[in-house]
Amino acid sequence: MSRKKPRPRDIISTIYEEEGFYEVEHGSGPESGYFDRLVLSDGRREIVVGILSEEAFAARGAIQDALLQAEKLKGKFNGVILAIPRKYQKAVDENVLALHGFGLLIYDILGAEEVIPPKIREFDQAIMGEGHRPEERRIEEEELIRLRREFSRILKVLEEMETRLDRLEKEQNKLMARISGVESKIESLKRTEQRMEEAKAASGVINGGKSGSKSLPPYLVNNPWVEILSRRE
Amino acid sequence: MNEEYKREHVFGLDYGTSDFKFGPITLGEVPEVVENRGYFVDSSSLMSRLMGVRKEIVVGRDVPMFLESREELAKRMVYPMRNGIIPKDDERAWRVIEELTRYALEIFAPEDEDFQGFYAVASISVVAPRYMYERLFEVFKEMNRGRVLIRAATIIPQPLAVAIAHKTPTCTVVESGHGNTQVCPISMYPVRDAVIALNRGGDAANILTAEILKDAGYGDLAKEESLVRKIKEEIGLLPRNLSEAIQFAKSNPDKVRASLKIPGTRVKIDLEDLSWTRFLIGEYVFNPGHEIFQSYFARGMPRPGDVKIGDTYFYGMMDMAEAVITSVEKCPIELQPYLYSKILLSGGNFGWRIPRGLESVATTADLKSKEMLVEKGIENVEVVVTGDPKFSVWKGCIVYGYAVPIDYEWRWERMEGWMNVA
Asked: Does residue A172 carry a pLDDT above 90?
């Protein structure tokens, strides 16, 4: 059985999921054709990872383009990280990236590793846009946290309800089986009763021999086997 | 078809080892009986040409009219059920069964249009293998070639039929026919795993009777099986205790002396000073292991051997009480007391009488069995010889067919129910 090769984006997401980030957006950068953009958020902060593939490294100017684009993204996100294939780690100077506040990730098919953590910046009013006062921003953040808590609680309630529903369905199936068993027993009892009545009625019909006697032969009269055998089904 | 029609058209067929008993429920208590045999007619014989016989086989009451020399008899007469089991490839035996079945049904099948076939209940040995059931159902289907003689059929083991006829749902049935003896515990159903079969029945006693006749100077008569059987039934005795009975016979020769005239012939048999051997005949049925029989074996009388037929082991020398105990002990312990408390002896092999004057030494099959079981330490034993032992199986067939509902279809796993053959 063949296994699908993991995508760099999935490998990278995994290490940030452990820190509480989830994927918000993914796609090619609108301004750059050299790297993919992966936006992650923990509900309060958003970070962006620019992923350079092996193919991108083959293009001249890809690293410079990536760095320029990354610089632009600094204004929009709380942190900016460049992700490059492990075998091209030496192509970039880690100290320079750290100096400018970029994070650095290396990856291969086995996993990803954070070489330099990004510098996380808190946005000021200018970053949040016009009309967002600091009090409002704080309220929005608190609201977001509260909503996330509510969302988790609702999820738990839903899970619990799902479990209870499963249990109820199982109980219902058991009850249905028992009811059909009881119904078939009642049906069989009815049939047996009918047969017994027919047997009684027929006892006057059978001739007891060539003599033409109307009674049953003695071996049929009061024979417990008649009842035992008439219940065979 | 409804239950009422079925009850009025139940037809019992007891394929006994020696006799074939048959007839519909309307016969009441006594079925028709013919010997379970068929005679393959020599088409060139004078009799068959005179009678204009086209048939290959003659069965039923007409058989004696076609008999020829003794040598021809041995070649042409077929007793299909001698051991209760018909070999799979014994086509002559199966032809006889087919002819006997047709003979039985055609005697009683009404000509009116309302008749739509009998509900046939056949009974065969409890040790009969599955292929016999399959073949018998084929025979029943064959019956409907011209007109429908059988609507549906079923097959039950003979011991079950005996228990049914005697209104006993829990018991041990010992059915002893011509060729074998079957011990079968019954608890609503036959306990098939506990069945014990003995490779001896009435024929074993016939063989011993023939030896006794030879010793008494009637060697020529000893070759005629039906005559030997008749002599056995007339002079054979079942001893309470064999040694004491022989001693009594030797001390009182006049009381035990056996003399018999065969009606319609000049033949007269008198055992004279060998009259004590009358007690050997009955003892041999119950306990062939007694040392006195060694001299007969030594002189060439065949010893009932252990044989395996199909999946069943037939014991030759096991005594009757041992067979009952072995069979009952294969059942759950809780059930065993009930099985000992009602033992039914059925079949022509248990019809031993006590002649006047011999009450102190001769006994009946039920008393003999009870004494043998008590000697082996079994308590609370009740043994009964079934009334009309010859017809018990047929009566059981009638009750079975009468009671089992028509919608209870044949199931191979239970070996029960009706198989539609029309």
From this structure: yes
pLDDT in tens, A32-54: 677 788 988 888 888 999 998 88
Name the pTM for this structure: 0.62
Return the pLDDT at B74: 65
Give the whole-angstrom CA distance, residue B133 versus residue B98.
Answer: 13
Contact A233 B28 (CB under 8 A): no
The Cα B88–Cα A229 span in angstroms is 31
Q: How confident is the model at residue A79 (pLDDT cuts 50, 70, 90)?
A: very high
ipTM of the complex: 0.82
pLDDT for B207-263, tens place per residue?
999 999 999 888 888 878 778 888 898 899 999 999 999 999 989 988 888 888 888
Nearest to B404 by CA among B1, B3, B83: B3
Residues of B with CB under 8 A from a CB of A: 3-4, 7-8, 25-30, 163-167, 169, 188, 395, 398-400, 402-405, 407-408, 416-417
And the tokens for A150?
Answer: 């509510």
Give the residue from B404, B415, B418 with the most A CB atoms within 10 Å of its CB, the best one to mutate: B404
Q: Between chains, do A220 and B398 touch, taking CB under 8 Å as contact?
A: yes
Q: Is residue B399 within 8 Å of A229, Cβ to Cβ?
A: yes
Contact in structure between B44 and B57 (CB atoms under 8 Å): no
Residue to mutate among B399, B413, B414, B418, with most A CBs inside 10 A, is B399
A53 touches chain B (CB under 8 A): no
The dihedrals phi and psi of A135, each to the nearest 5 degrees, come to -65, -40
Q: What is the DSSP string of A167-188?
A: HHHHHHHHHHHHHHHHHHHHHH
Q: Which residue type sits at B98?
A: E
Tokens at A172, concatenated: 């219902």
For residues A42 and A20, the answer to whether their CB atoms sit within 8 Å is yes
Does the pLDDT of residue A194 top 80, yes or no? no
